[in-house]
Amino acid sequence: MKKERQILVIFPHPDDETFGVSGTIAMHVANGTPITYACLTLGEMGRNLGNPPFATRESLPKIRKQELIKASEALGINDLRMLGFRDKTVEFEDDEEMILIMSNLIEELNPSLVITFYPGYSVHPDHEATARAVIEAVKRMEESERPTVHCVAFSNGHEQEIGPADIVNDITPFAEQKKAAMRAHLSQTEWMLKELEPKWESGDKVALEWLQTERFWTYSFK
């Protein structure tokens, strides 16, 4: 794997970094690459309150903040930025202000790689708004100064429109870190882990492929 100068991961919610990116993050950390994770919200409007519920709507932001910190520690992220936006309102933020925030992060950190969602193919309005701002911020840079952008896409039928992922990472050596990050986000993942963990232990091929493989699309600005 290529050693990056600096990686900037930008997602709107705690746990967005975990499901499809955490093994890749852990792999880059092991390779000596510094990682900054900018998380826009605390996911305070998340539908899950634990199973059985152990959070309330009032306590959920504090719980998810601690879960985010714990997951970041499990992955070796030592620069976690919590940007303070409100969950499910990112789409209503001023576009230019959002782009400026992303531009300032990129200017400060000078990353060689940015990881975010693929605009148009990431389902949730907060995902889409975040992705659009990141892509536009990079697009406005001088071409020679732009970082590479790897995007996560998962909307129905996305491969029919944008093709298969061009980056496929086997993160098997870092699967335990990925599991630890998922367990850190327990308010959101407990129901999922109850289903997945027995499948991992039994060697279920589909479940293990999901755990051990992470896919990205390199964004083309042409």
List the helices and strands and how they pair.
Elements: E1 7-11, H1 16-19, H2 22-30, E2 35-39, H3 60-75, E3 79-82, H4 95-109, E4 113-117, H5 125-139, E5 148-152, H6 158-162, E6 167-170, H7 175-184, H8 186-202, H9 205-212, E7 213-218
Parallel strand pairs: 1-2, 1-4, 2-3, 4-5
Antiparallel strand pairs: 5-7, 6-7
Helix pairs in contact: 3-7, 4-5
Protein name: Bacillithiol biosynthesis deacetylase BshB2
InterPro entries: BshB2, GlcNAc_PI_deacetylase-related, LmbE-like_dom_sf
Pfam families: PIG-L
Largest sheet: 7 strands, mixed
Order of helices and strands: EHHEHEHEHEHEHHHE
**How many separate helices?**
9
Per CATH, what is the topology? Rossmann fold
Instruction: Report strand %.
Output: 15-25%
Terminal CA distance reads 25 Å
Secondary-structure arrangement, i.e. CATH architecture: 3-Layer(aba) Sandwich
CATH superfamily assignment? LmbE-like
InterPro entries: BshB2, GlcNAc_PI_deacetylase-related, LmbE-like_dom_sf
Cofactor: Zn(2+)
Pfam family, one: PIG-L
GO molecular function: hydrolase activity, acting on carbon-nitrogen (but not peptide) bonds, in linear amides
What does this structure look like?
Pfam families: PIG-L. The structure is a single chain. The protein has 222 residues and is α/β, with parallel strands linked by helices. It has a single domain, classed as LmbE-like (Rossmann fold). 45% of the residues lie in helices and 15% in strands. It is built from 9 helices and 7 strands, in the order βααβαβαβαβαβαααβ. It has helices at residues 16-19, 22-30, 60-75, 95-109, 125-139, 158-162, 175-184, 186-202, 205-212, and strands at residues 7-11, 35-39, 79-82, 113-117, 148-152, 167-170, 213-218. The protein has a 7-stranded mixed β-sheet with strand order 3-2-1-4-5-7-6, with helices on both faces. Helix 3 (60-75) links the parallel strand 2 (35-39) and strand 3 (79-82). The model has no long low-confidence stretch (mean pLDDT 94).
